[in-house]
Amino acid sequence: MSFTTLAFLAFFLIVWLGYLILPGTVRKVWLLAASYLFCASLGALALAALMGSTLVTWLAGLALEAEKKRTAEGPGGGDEYGTRKLLCLRARVFFAAVIAFHVAALGFFKYNSWGILLPVGISFYTFQAIGYLADVYGGKTKAERSLLNFALFQAFFPKLAQGPIERSESLLAQIRKLPGRNVRDLERVRSGGLRILWGLCEKLLIADRIAIPVNAVYSQFGAFGGVEIALATLLYAFQIYCDFAGYTDIARGAAELLGIDLTANFRRPYLADSVQDFWHRWHQSLSSWLRDYLYIPLGGSRKGRLRRAANIMITFLVSGVWHGTGFHFLAWGGLHGLAQIFDIKRWKLPRPAKQLLVFLFVDLTWMVFRVNSLGDLKGMLVILATDFRLRDFAGMELTVFEWLLVLLGILLVALKDVANERGFGFRRWLLSRSAAVRCLIYTGMIGAVVILGVYGAAYDTSQFLYTQF
Q: Taking 90 as the threshold, does the pLDDT of residue 464 lie above it?
């Protein structure tokens, strides 16, 4: 049940209307039931994996907190130092064992050779579970006593398939307060509705149309010249951005209508002036998770330049492995790790020049990310180096009118990001307009999605790109 289907629209309207009618004490049960139904629509294995992970993590959190409490209180008499040390060791071993369980489960589903499909959302809620357990172990948060609250924290359907990867101090804290939350706030309805509508525009008007020439070139790159490969690679940068940002906007908008604020995942990433800055702007919930739960525990930048470089490489190699099973994902992570170590942020260049260089680097590494294998990457690079000409532009499968729509969509996204970077917020501007102006613009956006959006099985709109990770 993808966000772009009529089935999801009907599902969400029923969930939202029921949520508005039901008393506060029942809302969490209603949302959990809806979230499990949504997960079940993605496959029985997806639901079973989610429920199993949730139960294990909830019990582990309670047990871990109990171990930590026993360690803090001490044995009270006898060899207190030795006993306290043993208790501390037990807590560490237990924590390591639970984390190992989650990593092993994720690794099994990602890399098994028996054809068992990856349960939708497991990469995201597994990282969320690990972060929660690390916070409990570190004393940053208390273990959640309510299984209902924790289950909803893990399963909340707007963020289930592709995140954001939420923290307990944010999402879990909001879930605890749901019964007393005002969910009939008209401003939240306006804001959430606009996020959903803009997300649909990003996905159906821009990302899915760009996917047509990108898929055509990357699936049969030998039939194209270097010009088409370069153009497809440039387009892919905007496809993956609009696809993932579109999902995030729909997820955040749906959550906002249900009284919950999810983490923003993007902040104008292609305007970054260093690779480090790019990762502060792109997939922010994953970037901050890797920083807080991997890079910093490894030592961060506190133990010298060589150790910092090693920690950065480990972090980005893990990011590559998290994204996929092919060696090209590992290579993509490694390239970004090297770029972080030898970043251009200290280069004495004008900011626009740095922004251009960073975008070109990110776009070239998107090629490594997008190919099916390192062999395909080698073949495409050979064509780029030896046959940079236009060979089969018609084979990119778009009409002149559709190319104009692609160009218009990219310009619209670019203008929005540039304006927001300079302090002019389109959302604030639009939400402050009169009801008549808003209705006119909303009608135009809805009409564009319905009339110009890319639909149909031939275009494979059933999944967002990051669902496969």
A: no
